[in-house]
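Hello again, I could really use a second opinion on something today. I've dropped the whole record in just underneath, so have a look.
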Amino acid sequence: MGLITPSYKNVIITETRGRSISFENGRNTMTVSRSRCTMTLGSQTRKEAPEPTGSLVHPKNTLKIGNWNVRTLYRTGNLAQAAREMNRRGISIMGISETHWTGQGKLQIAEGETIIYSGREDDIHRAGVGILMSQDAAGALIEWTPVSERIIQARFHSRHIKLTVIHVYAPTEDADEETKDEFYARLQEVLDKRNKHDMLVITGDMNAKGRGKHQL
């Protein structure tokens, strides 16, 4: 297990523009989209440059939100496979665990799906989390926050009620106490600072083997 990355205070993250990545076994191309980054205490919230084009949550519609531990997206073709599975099941938002990607960013696949991700800062390809979105969900994205390689948060627009999704990849009970304490402290901080008027959905792997001292 990798350690939680330190707090991002006093660090400004900028996104590379115009970079593209092509899969070797397919025609899928990912391009880093442009967004602006604004500072918040303890992490950076990235506000989307354009106004949201969609309304994600509606009382008469069913919104499917899922979660998948992919083991790695570092292997060629795994992101395209995750997107196909999401579409097959009709899922609009899918939390992704163990991306094994480093850094933070936002990628769009040629078919239209978008993923935001948060990984380690030391070039070690472990842990890593992301949120994979359909075209409609990506169009409703207001802002997102890469908290650490184990926590990522996204907020979506709706005319009825806004939606906050927090995806987590918790340390296992076998991890050292310092790692577990830091993870749950960071998660509690995110929960305390979220917009209390939003609908809240937490997805991910809590990795608990039994009842312990960590409770939210």
Remarks:
- Confidence is low (pLDDT under 50) at residues 1-42.
- The chain has three helices and 13 strands.
- The first helix runs from residue 78 to 88.
- The CA atoms of residues 1 and 175 lie 7 Å apart.
